[in-house]
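Question (not urgent): is this output format expected?
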Amino acid sequence: MLLVVIALALYVALRPTSPSITTMATGLWLLAIAMFIAANPAVEMLALSNQFAAAPAEAQRSAAVAAGQALLAGWEGTAFHVGYVLGQLAGIMIGLVMVKSRQFGRAIPSTLIVGNLVGFGLYLPTVGVAISAFSGVILWAWYLLIARKFLQLAGPMAHVPERSGT
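Got this back:
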């Protein structure tokens, strides 16, 4: 959910550099986030977990397990993968606009581009999940870099003055 705020802030910062690519990439990012949230079965899995724990008979536990497996199959389905690919493409596009804008230096856009390119490793057999997890580590580094840059760009506006006793 925090990526929504970051995407909108980057839209405002990068729109003057490349309005069309920034708008398209931001739209793709927001769509990818919405697809990921819609596809995520976390709440449903919690409910099934509670049903499993409370089940008095093996048949009811088996039904809860089967329902959980079906939910996981749906989560790993079309919405997840389309959202994943759109999110990776949007990140690369935003990174390229960041390079062009020059206000974010080299490390921030490079980290974003590399993290999203590595994210496509998910589709490699056997090692894909590990590579995708590594892209998450790279993108967490990007989150820290971009947060620091946003604070720098905010400048004195980021400082909240203390209230006097009057």
